[in-house]
Amino acid sequence: MTTLAPTAPAAARRPRHPYLTALATARGRTGLALVGLVVLAGLLAPLLAGHPPTDQSGLTLAPVGTPGHPLGTDDLGRDLLSRLLHGIRADLGIIAVAVPLGAVLGCLLALAAAVHPAVDTAVQRAFDLILAFPGLILALAVTAVLGPGRLPVVLVIALAEIPVFGRLLRTGILAQRSREYVTAARVGGTSGRRILTRHVLPNAADPLVVQFAVSLTVAVFLEGAMSFLGVGVRPPEPTLGAVLSQSMPHLAQAPHFAAGPLVTVTALVLGLSLVAEALNREIRR
Questions:
Q1: Structural domain count of the chain
Q2: What is the CATH classification number for the domain harbouring 227?
Q3: CA distance linking residue 41 with residue 107, whole number of Å
């Protein structure tokens, strides 16, 4: 007769991480599915695109379903599917560098501000200066100095995100420093640096995760707006904003020209927003 090994009680099982719990909700799964679909399309662009994104042909403004051009062609005869997929790839590459760069720099400045009041004052004034410029005005100022291109887009997005992450982390540090456990640690002789790194920062970091997802959404809009205005990535390299900008004069004749980038941006922004909302709901519980 065999005996079954006793199973561990439910209370003894390791609890699921709150971020995983948030992403397992309906909002989280839907958001991840939308973002994952767009990201996968961008990563597989060289395999999925049947033509190079800059190759021109004599077949201009071809409709959807044209043989060899599933989404048609643009006004210069370039394959829209290829330009859309490579535009996704370009946008993802930009925001994948710019948003983490802005987050890291903002958090480092917040940590520096937490060390000394004089540094805090200087950092806050620097944040005020950056926030005084709306995103597009900041973009125009940077591109007026550096000219259009990929690097200025990355710099603009990173600069716009530095004060957002910096002030969010600073607020969290100040809130945690007033808690009783910090006072108890000080009375127990724990050094200020250890309190900051081992106790305050882990408890102040949760809002940063939500803000990261939100900032990715803002970065998509900002890059698209810069490319739409002609101060983003230089043509003929495709981005979603550039493809949308090129479609404007042909909306009446070829509405499918603008459909691809609009649907893609909507899916990406909606997915990131759902992920951010799911994370925020779980953190606030």
A1: 1
A2: 1.10.3720.10
A3: 32
